[in-house]
Amino acid sequence: MGSVNGSEGPWLQRFANGKPVRKPKRQQPWRAPPDQSRDIIASAQCILDRENFVREMDRYLKHNDFLHLRKTELLYKKYLENVSEPFMQKMKDQMVSQSQKEVWKRRQEQYSQYLNYCTKKGYVFLDDYDPSEYDPFFQKTCTNCWKVMKVINQNNDRANDVCHLCSS
Predict the structure, then answer these.
(1) How many C-beta atoms surround the C-beta of residue 123 within 10 A?
(2) Would you say residue 8 lies in a domain?
(3) Quick one: where's region Disordered (predicted)?
(4) Global pTM exceeds 0.85
(5) Which listed site, 4, 26, 64, 78, has its alpha carbon 20 to 30 Å from 11?
(6) Residue 13 lies in a domain
(7) Which residues form the domain of 58?
(8) For residue 68, is it within any domain?
(9) For the chain, where are the alpha helices, taking DSSP H only?
(10) What pLDDT, in 10s, does the model give residues 77-132?
(11) Is residue 19 situated within a structural domain?
(12) How many CB atoms lie within 10 A of CB 131?
């Protein structure tokens, strides 16, 4: 048997400063019951599947936009090669083939033809026009201007009615 004040007894290890000392238990990981853990895994998998679907859809849409842009670029390139550039080249060739004197002469001829036509017709300026030849209101079918006048007249009639009632 050991002494009361001796340190060889196991009871001394349990008390320190008059309080019992307990060894901390090792914390064990929390485990859900098997059916709950399956539900959690299934819901997490569902969320991951949705994220993957959204990611794949985004990638597909970006790729589709890229293909559409590329298609437009190729179409424009074909247009330039087959239509625009040959046309511009023909115009340049035509302009280079004519001298400055020929261009000036052709302009004078066209202007003199225009003046001859106008003098033959009798009307040169836009202020003077032939009503049988040109009607500026031919296509005007909207009559909203009359509606505005109608509203103004109704307001005047009401004012007159009120004045008439007040005077009698």
Answers:
(1) 13
(2) no
(3) 1-36
(4) no
(5) 26
(6) no
(7) 34-97
(8) yes
(9) 11-14, 34-79, 85-97, 100-121, 144-167
(10) 999 999 999 999 999 998 888 888 988 999 999 999 988 887 787 766 666 667 77
(11) no
(12) 7
